[in-house]
UniProtKB/TrEMBL annotation:
Residues 60-221 form the SIS domain. Residues 1-21 are annotated as: Disordered. GO terms for molecular function: carbohydrate derivative binding; carbon-oxygen lyase activity; ether hydrolase activity. The gene is murQ. Signal peptide: none annotated. Specifically catalyzes the cleavage of the D-lactyl ether substituent of MurNAc 6-phosphate, producing GlcNAc 6-phosphate and D-lactate. Its EC number is 4.2.1.126. It is an enzyme of class 4 (lyase). This is N-acetylmuramic acid 6-phosphate etherase. Belongs to the GCKR-like family. MurNAc-6-P etherase subfamily. Pfam families: GKRP_SIS_N. The lineage of its organism: Bacteria, Bacillati, Actinomycetota, Actinomycetes, Kitasatosporales. GO terms for biological process: amino sugar catabolic process; peptidoglycan turnover.
């Protein structure tokens, strides 16, 4: 498909919204109220697709545990949303680089400035998906459900044997046939017709945040609701390690700091040592046997 070709998108997001017909005559506060009322519809729309999203979570967890990767593919706002989600997983969960990869049509430059024609190229999508393997998961993100870049990526990933999913705001998405699971979040017409950076983008952020967070929980990168795999890459996060230990154990700052130092700064090891209790070496062995899940490591017998 060439960039000069005109395409009419058929999607609920393109319809005029009867609730915002007078938005151009409203004062700023009323404009914000109209936008806020539309935004309030998003969580319920996301709730409708949770069973399908759970299937993607389960498959992604299995494949990442076996050494596979999660790939996001998107253009425009959809691609930027995917990039942001993937970027946060390293510092939040100490995820090794390359485990979750976001591919944005047009590359890094397109994060701030649109790269003309990139989203209309199936070939570019296929090229970006060239390293997707049969043990991977490929998630295409496209509000319209028809973006050629995403089409090329999903087709290539599917041909490589990867598990594929499509996240869209269009129940009738033309690319649904390329996905093992289609997560269509029907947020309806936008406050400004066709401006999918509004409700559709908000819904996609919730879906991707839900996907990645649920996978991280399943992989044991939390203990209860605490970030026990957080990467201490800055002063704020380094200070958070002791705070997390205090929250998880109910013990004082000095004892938690001492345990963390004794575990060479390994938060999970220090946590197991304090709660088991046990020596750091045994804590590491327990965690290894429990595949990194602190709760399971605490139930394990001493090795």
């Amino acid at each position: 498909m060439t960039p000069s070709r005109s395409v009419r998108v058929v999607s609920p997001t393109e319809r005029r919204n009867p609730r915002t017909l007078g938005i151009d005559r409203a004062d700023p506060l009323d404009v914000l109220r109209l936008l806020n009322a539309e935004d309030a519809l998003v969580p319920a729309a996301v709730a409708e697709v949770l069973p399908r999203l759970a299937v993607v979570v389960e498959t992604t967890t299995e494949r990442l545990r076996a050494g596979g990767r999660l790939h996001y593919f998107g253009a425009g706002t959809s691609g930027r949303t995917a990039v942001v989600d993937a970027a946060e997983l390293g510092p939040t969960f100490s995820l090794p680089p390359g485990t979750v990869v976001a591919h944005h049509a047009g590359g890094p430059a397109a994060m701030v400035t649109a790269v003309e024609g990139s989203e209309d190229s199936e070939e570019l999508g296929a090229a970006d998906a060239a390293d997707v393997g049969p043990g991977d998961v490929a998630v295409g993100v496209a509000a319209s459900g028809r973006t050629p870049y995403v089409a090329g990526a999903l087709a290539a990933a599917r041909a490589a044997g990867a598990f594929t999913a499509l996240v869209s705001a269009n129940p009738g998405a033309p690319l649904a046939h390329l996905a093992d699971v289609h997560i269509a979040v029907d947020t309806g017409p936008e406050a400004i017709a066709g401006s999918t950076r509004l409700k559709a983008a908000s819904a996609h952020k919730l879906v991707l945040n839900g996907l990645s967070t649920a996978v991280m929980v399943a992989l044991g990168r939390t203990y209860s609701n605490l970030m026990v795999d957080v990467s201490a890459s800055n002063a704020k996060l380094r200070g958070r390690l002791v705070t997390i230990l205090m929250e998880a154990t109910g013990l004082g700052e000095e004892r938690c700091a001492h345990a963390l130092a004794g575990a060479d700064g390994e938060l999970k090891t220090a946590l197991v040592c304090l709660l088991a209790p046990c020596a750091p070496e045994e804590g590491r062995r327990r965690l290894a046997a429990a595949r990194g899940r602190v709760a399971d490591a605490l139930e394990a017998q001493p090795i």
